[in-house]
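hi! just following up on the protien thing from before. the input was this:
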Amino acid sequence: MTDGLALNLTPLLPEIVLFLAALALLVVGAFKDKEGARIVTVLAVISLILAALLTLALSRTTVLAMGGHFVEDGFAAFFKMLIFLGAAGSLIVANGYMRDAGIERFEYPVLALFSTLGMSMMVSANSLLALYMALELTSLPLYVMAAFNRDTVRSSEAGLKYFILGALASGMLLYGCSLVYGFNGSLMFGELGRALSVDGRLPVGTVVGIVFILAGLAFKLGAVPFHMWTPDVYEGSPTPVSTFFASAPKIAAMGLLIRVLMQPFGHHVVEWQQVVILISVLSMLLGAFAAIGQTNIKRLMAYSSIGHIGYAFVGLSAGTEKGVVAVLVYMAIYVVMTVGTFACILKMRRDGRYIETIADLAGLSASRPMMAACFAIFMFSLAGIPPLAGFFGKLYVFMAAVDAGYLWLALFGALTSVVGAYYYLRIVKIIYFDDPAAAFDNTPHPALNAVSVIAAALILFFIVVPGPVTRAAGSAAASLVTPASGAANVPAPASRVTALR
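and the predicted 3d structure came back as:
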């Protein structure tokens, strides 16, 4: 009995590490008092690194656990590595800001660990029940983190808005799960995939359930028309919290969405494809035009994230293995660009006060050339300017759409990308060509410089050696359909992963 239990818990080792670390750090922080926040943050980052190493070691095989509700495979491992990367980067850049803002408390990294634990469970969810429980574990700490600076009205308002709208989205998701279960008699993805692969058309109730599940997950992704919380929460939350929101939770929600659509409903792409395409078009459109008039850089990044989720949906809308690979590559590039950009935003500090206005970047190249160069790299990459990594991310998703017969969607994405490039290039123009504003303070936190430089280097490195990322994405997509998961085969077998290598 002991051996069987140990074997069953082996796939959950990364999650067990995060859970035990969060509990232990809660005690450490309580006893260390003022020094607790810094110590807990360092230990939290170490815990994330350890969880990432365990994930890497377990990624070679596909194993079920917890009665089949949890699956550890290459697909989950790929997304977990991105989640841990985004969470660790967010915690590393948070320390200095929290201390300067007078809100340095040990609870923040503990909340981040609990939320990351939920995200890790999300991408390994193999049933509708596990999906919902993991999503709630992810969301509850995020509500508190959004309102972490409780002494300011903006942060409290951001937390309240996110909580109310998040509760609504969770209700929609749960209703969708109940409809799918009610019309098909199973919660397990494998059983749903086998049952739905035999039947012809999906029951109407199942289709409605899929739409509600899509709506709930689209809220977590900040995709249109469920984006209303994103600009206000990004702007109102402390900047490190916005960094966390923009990276790890979006990666987890995208991983869960891909698994839900491609495993139990993989034989019925037509039933959900139109909804995904609609969300993609609306997100790209809003992301391209709504950010043009923004003056707050955090609010601009909120609309930017909406647009980038729309581009990722272009690859998902293809409903093919090549489309899945394209989305995986895109999200890997996205998390690096996002964390690097927010690391630069956190260096916008003048006279001891953090500022967020785009106009304050004027003439940055004269006073802080390294910061200006990193900012320019991230802006060019977010805009999709060749040959930076962001260009290849968009190229891959557009190629997947074209191969699936959606040339018009790829062209629409290219046009909105051109429109969106305006506000990215405007920032570069302000940095390099406008009359210099007052110089920013010298960054007293070396971690910010390290994260921004490393992220910029990774964006440039992808130009030379894209193989490791594309090969890992290809292996992850291939493992999405395995005998252990019992899922249906991914449609359109003619699409090949090697096309992206």
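The first strand starts at residue 63 and ends at 65.
The chain has a mean pLDDT of 87.
cheers
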